[in-house]
Amino acid sequence: MPISFNDIPANWRMPLYWVEVDPSKAGSLTQRQPALLVGYMLPAGVATVDVPVPIGSIAEAQQGAGLGSMLDAMAQVFFKNSASQEVWMLPIAEPTTGVAATGKISVTGAPTQAGTIYVYVAGRRVPVHMDAEDTMAIVAQSINDAIGADISMPVTAATVAADVTLTARHKGIEGNDITIAINYGGSLAGETMPAGLVIDIGTGQLAGGTGVPDLTAAISALGDEIYDYVAFPFTDSTSLDAIDMEYGFSDNGRWGWMRELYGHVFGARRGTYADLLQWGPNNNSGVISVMSMEPTMPSPPWDVASAYAAKAGRALINDPARPLQTLELTGILSPPKHQRFLLAECNALAGVGLATQGVGANNVPAIRRETTTYQKNLYDQPDDAYELVTTLATLSALLRRQKQAITSKYPRHKLADDGTRFGPGQAIVTPKIVKAELVAQYRQDEFEGLVENAKAFKDNLIVERDTTNPNRLNVLYPPDLINQLRIFAVLAQFRLQYDRGYDASVL
Q: How big is the CA angle at 307 (ends 301 and 312), to the nearest 5 degrees?
């Protein structure tokens, strides 16, 4: 009986017609690619600390992590950028020994006319009305009440005389990235200061926050579940090392050979050009991409990380090989025009492992280059193998497709040498059969725009039986990943007039 059945026994004698169904040649890859929001929760949240939980709406994130929590803000931004993706959140407890950042809004001059000002805290716009007769203390109380009325505000407010003290809801250094601005939109947005009113916001940021999260239990709780696009708000070296260990290429990493889970981590970091230029070379991970932010960008890094992960995931699910440039980070406020990174500065930041964004004509930041933090090889030499997010995104798609094809079509096959004469229908593979399967899959991947140069791939593909283990098949898989149109360089070699001997008739 040459045909290999899986279920019908060879010694079955009862008549007549028996069928077993085999889906091995029919299926194609259907891959879940969930996103994961990592961030602080508040004690009021009902979620369990360090345990991933799915969220289908902003309301579920607010209930689970607490109103005004970091995860509340991240969920709001994520759903603005990607409404249909499967999303989970990983609630983290604030550092127990940390200190919450604080800042102050001081009213130093009373208004002489009625009006409305707009206070921005962490990019959240709060209108505050005042009358011409209001004292400085009354204005301060109005600001305090307006901030408190926003239930998702990442700070609490308290007033003493004409001073409003803002305190981050979470302990930790992340609170130092909460910005304060007055009338950020300017006159074009109808935001002007009433006559006589004077407000001092100091440096425009909270300060004094200390402490970093302990991610050990949270990362352990991820288990072997797939989380392809991670919004990660922490950029201290301890936290980045921890998430890189989980998602990296070591034996126990998600890109390692034992787990084969893959995935990408997206973060954001605020700093001056000089600060970021010094920070960048200290990182080197192909699975982490950190978006650079100007000091005066009103939105906090966790909002930017969430928008970046959402837009990247949404695009890469559709096509992992297309560049992410020009994708808008919806819900993120841009810095003032005169305080944005110059194009030359963005180019230098991309050279030290930082992703970059630029502001479009509609004043919304958009991805310029999705650079990862990877910059050097194991010998500390410059290397661009994993420089761009699309490289690993494309490779993960190829490997998942290949794994699906092999495990579906050859789940319980025997292995024989090329040239073995076995009957048709036998569950046997040879190196040539597997090589043909891989070439066929590659041609399909080429048709779908993930790879190129199928002939070169076939010439360099090696499939052979192991010389010491007769039950093992070894494959050298050499895909040529498709590239992206990122630079269109033109030499405009103009003339004032072509030579009179030029024959225009050839046109």
A: 125
List, for residues 104-145, the tens digit of each pLDDT value: 999 999 999 999 999 999 999 999 999 999 999 999 999 999
How many other CB atoms sit within 10 Å of the CB of residue 50?
A: 19
Cβ–Cβ under 8 Å, residues 166 and 206: yes
- Kindly state the helix (H) or strand (E) to which residue 142 belongs, with its residue range: helix 136-149
**Cis peptide bond upstream of 16, omega within 30:** yes
The span from the CA of 58 to the CA of 267, in Å, is 20
Q: Are 348 and 266 in contact (CB under 8 A)?
A: no
Q: What is the pTM of this model?
A: 0.94
Smallest Cα–Cα separation from 156: which of 91, 69, 97, 62?
A: 69
Specify whether the CB–CB gap between 259 and 142 falls below 8 A: no
Q: How many residues would you count in the chain?
A: 507
Cα–Cα distance measured from residue 404 to residue 24, given in angstroms and rounded to the nearest whole number: 10
Q: What is the DSSP letter of 166?
A: E
Q: What is the DSSP string of 42-63?
A: -TT--SPTT--EEESSHHHHHH
pLDDT, one tens digit per residue, over 43-77 is 999 999 999 999 999 999 999 999 999 999 999 99
